[in-house]
Amino acid sequence: MTDKSTAGRRQRTVNGTRVAWVTGAGKGIGRALALELARRGVTVAVSARTEADLETLAAEHPRLHPFPVDVTDEAAMAATAEAIRRDLGEVDLAVFNAGTHKPVDGRTFSAQPFRTLMEVNVMGVIHGLAAVVPRMVARRAGHVAIMGSVSGYRGLPTAAAYGASKAALNNMAEALKPELESCGVSVSIINPGFVRTPLTDRNDFHMPFLVEPEYAAEKIVRGLEAKRFEIAFPFRMAVFMKLAKVLPQGLYFALTRRMVRHR
Ligand SMILES: NC(=O)c1ccc[n+]([C@@H]2O[C@H](COP(=O)([O-])OP(=O)(O)OC[C@H]3O[C@@H](n4cnc5c(N)ncnc54)[C@H](OP(=O)(O)O)[C@@H]3O)[C@@H](O)[C@H]2O)c1
User: Fold this and answer.
1) Is 262 a domain residue?
2) What pLDDT, on a 0 to 100 scale, did the predictor assign at position 14?
3) Is 174 helix (H, G, I), strand (E, B) or coil?
4) Is residue 103 in some structural domain?
5) What is the pLDDT of residues 22-71, one digit of tens each?
6) Which of 24, 32, 73, 200 has its CA 20 to 30 A from that of 46?
7) What number does the ligand 1 atom closest to the CA of 199 have?
8) Domain assignment present for 263
9) How many angstroms separate the CA atoms of 58 and 63, rounded?
């Protein structure tokens, strides 16, 4: 059963948010988050490159509206933000979630995975921020949320490009928070552990504390409602990775050396 029949009944709003924009909403965490926001009464513009995914999603709830875009295209992101404003209204909440992963084998080092991940994960978010922040600052209202990862806390084998992209986002969010807050704009960084999605379905290793996208969506919405700066989950993974963050390097490398796959 789709949610069309229940639309309008569950009306818990998210801090009065009327219009939200979620990128990377065609699959995985973004999809579940867009649905959760729509169920709480938010009108949601959903973006990804694959239009069919967005159409299928929009069929699940009348408050979901497809705005296909590639986040690596700065002009297209600006035009999409404008189209959302025109069609749905001012964006109150933007969740820049689109991202991808490519493992890096340090022993056959090449620039390509870094270029791809920096383009999508970092520049994709920056294009989104450039498209919405100036108007939010002018209105002295709004909330931007950036999808990071606990893998941005410290370097992990095979995640040299992914971790670096997520570390960049964590640093950027911290840098932006005080300035934007002083203009009435809230900033959040979302740092999940492992979530079962098409992205992690590709992993051939054990993923500790793996959670479902619906769990992630619920945690994210609660964090956004509380206007929390960092939204990290699941709790056990977040604590484990935060402890790893403060381990002395010698001890940390003793652990990560064991994660290296020998050929
Ligand atoms: N799953 C996890 O365990 C986990 C943990 C920590 C952080 N994260 C982060 O959470 C975010 C979502 O991950 P996920 O696991 O839900 O991934 P996913 O299942 O692969 O979904 C990613 C979504 O992003 C879209 N996307 C990818 N490249 C894009 C581009 N260039 N322009 C526009 N949209 C693009 C994809 O659609 P199209 O391909 O159709 O564009 C898809 O809808 C990512 O930033 C990821 O790094 C995930």
Assistant:
1) no
2) 86
3) helix
4) yes
5) 999 999 999 999 999 999 999 999 999 999 999 999 999 999 999 999 99
6) 200
7) 20
8) no
9) 8
Q: What is the pLDDT of residue 13?
A: 67
Q: Is residue 191 a part of any domain in this protein? A: yes
Per 3-state DSSP, what percentage of the chain is helix, strand, and coil (rounded to 5)? 50, 15, 35
Residue 60: CA count within 13 A, CB half-sphere: 19
The residue whose CA has the least distance to atom 24 of ligand 1 is: 24
**C-alpha distances out from residue 27 to 46, 51, 118, 244, Å:** 11, 11, 20, 30
Distance 121 CA to ligand 1 centre (A): 9
What is the number of structural domains in the chain? Answer: 1
Residue 171, domain extent: 3-257
**What pLDDT score does 89 carry?**
97
Place of tokens 């700066």: 229
Phi first, then psi, for residue 17 (nearest 5°) are -60, 125
Q: For ligand 1, which residues put their CB under 6 angstroms from it?
A: 23-24, 26-30, 48-50, 53, 70-72, 97-100, 120, 124, 147, 149, 192, 194-195, 197-200
For the stretch 67-89, pLDDT in tens is 999 999 999 999 999 999 999 99
